[in-house]
Design goal:
The complex is a heterodimer of chains A (about 200) and B (about 220). Chain A has 10 helices and 4 strands. Chain A is an alpha/beta fold and about 200 residues long. In chain A, helix 3 crosses helix 4 and helix 3 packs across helix 9. Chain B folds into 2 domains: about 90 residues, Nitrile hydratase, beta subunit (Cyclin A, domain 1, Orthogonal Bundle), CATH 1.10.472.20; about 80 residues, SH3 type barrels (Roll), CATH 2.30.30.
Chain lengths: ~200, ~220
């Protein structure tokens, strides 16, 4: 790179990243414009709104929901959200009796195509360590008390299969349009660390 | 390898660092590291399993002391060096004092994303018989591979049930060292939480893990 800014305020890490990028550009291995476009894609184009639209569609369209639960990869493809990651996707349905929670204990596997890049906590050591062993304690840290009668299923992503939770449709939203429903869906509800409380009084 | 990355079940890391309205990247350099990783991966010099294996071989103390995108930075430097694409000396020499030759033609963003999509797949179109079917009782083999594996310590020796067959996939343990794809069935295996963690776990709770044929034996 050819900028002449004062580097004295930069951290060692920033300097090291700049050195690496500059070397790779000089070698013709990467194009800075492509790097800009990748950053822009993940900051502005791919993110949990994609997943929220999938969830809202499943809530209003029973046929789509059945397809999603049977073959999520194809169902999500049909909505055009698979531009950046080619892994298979499996959708897990939360019900009154089952709560699903996703984790990658080995690193950071996550369904980018529908949720974007994972939040820092998802990649953090305490989450990776404890989600598999003490999911109810982890959920409490997110403000979610899971009743004794509910079965908690933890999905540890060890392969090229990505998991997306289909949260329960909140009560009081029966008359709500699909676009409004999508606004209710939080990123964490699709990871499994949130449950949705509703669009009305709830 | 039983490295520091295999964290499932460990204690002592403290509370989960939940952050409200968190940005995608916390600093511009994080985005650059991520983009470099995507662009370099698309060149096809290594595969995702080799990339993970390189991450796992970071010094464990460095691994624990670093934040996520720092680990990716160190991994990327190491894997570039391992593949002869850069040298440590080049990385440590200021740009105005080094002379390098062009090695190739950098990919456009369209090509990078297209290649990532094609990499859909770890899935392999091959006729490989499945050793197990849904409902079969299986035991995670009690094995300790020295190299890369996606078999976490915490399930080894535990008994579970085949929940579903995902189909035929590349086997990471061999692919990570470019020793072949060894295509085989990948299953989701359900374990009772109490089978894994003992009687303190809730009796109804379950763990589901994706596991290759080579990780499993008849129970």
């Amino acid at each position: 790179m050819t900028d002449h800014t004062d580097h004295s305020h930069l951290s060692d890490t920033e300097l090291r990243v700049r050195a690496l990028e500059s070397l790779l550009v000089d070698k013709g291995l990467v194009d800075p414009a492509a790097l800009d476009a990748i950053v822009d894609t993940y900051e502005n184009k791919v993110g949990p709104r994609n997943g929220a639209k999938v969830v809202a569609r499943a809530w209003v369209d029973p046929d789509f929901k059945q397809w999603l639960l049977r073959d999520a990869t194809a169902a999500i493809d049909s909505l055009g959200y698979t531009s950046t990651q080619g892994a298979d996707i499996v959708v897990l349905e939360n019900t009154a009796k089952v709560h699903n929670l996703t984790v990658c204990s080995l690193c950071s596997c996550y369904p980018w195509a529908v949720l974007g890049l994972p939040p820092a906590w998802y990649k953090s050591f305490p989450y990776r360590a404890r989600a598999v062993k003490d999911p109810r304690g982890v959920l409490q840290e997110f403000g979610q008390d899971i009743a004794d009668g509910v079965e908690v299923r933890v999905w540890d992503s060890t392969a090229e299969v990505r998991y997306l939770v289909l949260p329960e449709r909140p009560p009081g939203t029966e008359d709500m349009a699909e676009e409004k429903l999508a606004d209710l869906v939080t990123r964490n509800s699709m990871i499994g660390t949130d449950r949705l409380t509703g669009g009305g009084a709830g | 390898m039983d490295g520091i990355h295999d964290m499932g079940g460990m204690d002592g890391f403290g509370p989960i660092p939940i952050e409200q309205d968190e940005p995608v990247f916390h600093a511009p350099w994080e985005g650059r590291v991520w983009a470099l990783n995507s662009a370099l991966g698309a060149l096809g010099k290594w595969n995702i399993d080799a990339g993970r294996y390189e991450m796992e071989q970071l010094d464990p103390i460095l691994y624990l002391q670093s934040i996520y995108y720092q680990r990716w930075l160190y991994r990327t430097e190491n894997i570039l060096i391992a593949h002869g694409m850069v040298t440590r000396q080049e990385l440590e020499t200021p740009p105005e004092r080094r002379k390098v030759e062009k090695q190739g033609q950098a990919l456009s963003v369209e090509d990078i994303f297209a290649r990532q999509r094609q990499a859909r797949s770890a899935r392999v179109d091959a006729e490989v018989p499945a050793r197990f079917k849904t409902g079969d009782k299986v035991r995670a083999r009690n094995i300790y591979p020295k190299g890369h594996t996606r078999l976490p310590r915490y399930v080894r020796g535990k008994v579970g049930v085949i929940d579903r067959d995902h189909g035929v996939f590349i086997f990471p343990d061999s692919n990570a060292v470019f020793a072949g794809k060894k295509p085989q069935h990948l299953y989701s295996v359900q374990f009772a939480a109490q089978e894994v963690w003992g009687s303190d776990a809730a009796s109804a709770d379950k763990i589901y893990m994706d596991m290759w044929d080579d990780y499993l034996e008849v129970s």
